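thought: fold this chain, then report.
action: predict
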Amino acid sequence: MLSSATRFCLIGPGRLGSTLAVVLERAGFAVIAVVGRPGLATEPDRRPPRLPLADAVSHADVLWLTVPDDQIGTVAAQVAAQATATIGAADENAADPTSLTAIHSSGLGSLDLLAPLARLGVRTLCLHPLQSFAAGEPAPAALAGVPIAVTARPDDEAFGFALAAAIGGRPFALPDANKPLYHLAATVASNLFVALESEAAGLIAEAIGGDPGDGLDLLAHLVETTAANLRAGGPSRALTGPVARGDVGTVRAHVALLQARAPRLAAAYRALSLEALALAAPRLDDENVRALRRVLEEGAPR
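observation:
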């Protein structure tokens, strides 16, 4: 059962782990340790202290693995081995695997990554905040209102929902089999968006004779307004620009310019504009739609 007495240990003090340490303590939980490299010594002046894995397994109720995705399985096996080594030890702090909870936060990875622990009777879950954690000092309210995907077996889902809510998030259920599709959606919405903004900033910086930083600053208000419109009215109502207006000439000029100066971006422009056309088509006449599709599928004449 989750309570203020629940003791957490974070394994992997990166951006997410550092953020969770702050958020959990603000929510009233005891973060008793952070585990970094194997064998890392305790640092008494740190809060929370950094401990070796053996101490964390012996003292924590919840082990939250915030290591990179490709390390989760390896670390889970190490934790399982450590828990097994303490079973039956003549130590009042010996780990009881059935009283432990292990969590990972991979958006893509299955619960099977924690299988070595599940086989010992450890409760296993995945909690994935639908949020981007950039560099900088973690904020105590970093997860306030953030959707958090909870992947768990039926008997464990309530615990996951309670924990996600306790740290300020908005929990929702995510079936294990659907995680790859979910993660793809998050990547398109966030990571590929950043890549597109980088390209856009470079184009506008070239247009004004500045640098990409100038471009990002100039585009910021447009991006923020677009995001607000998207949230308020959905994609169809938020879509503006030449495709939404059926402006074939402008789209043809864009494609020609990109083919001549940035062919890699030209392919992305055409593909994404075809997606925009699918949104805009109901409010355009059929000839406009056909003309735009020809330009976007075939490219501008050379």
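thought: worth noting. Residues 182-298 form a domain with the N-(1-d-carboxylethyl)-l-norvaline Dehydrogenase; domain 2 fold (CATH 1.10.1040).
final: tokens above.
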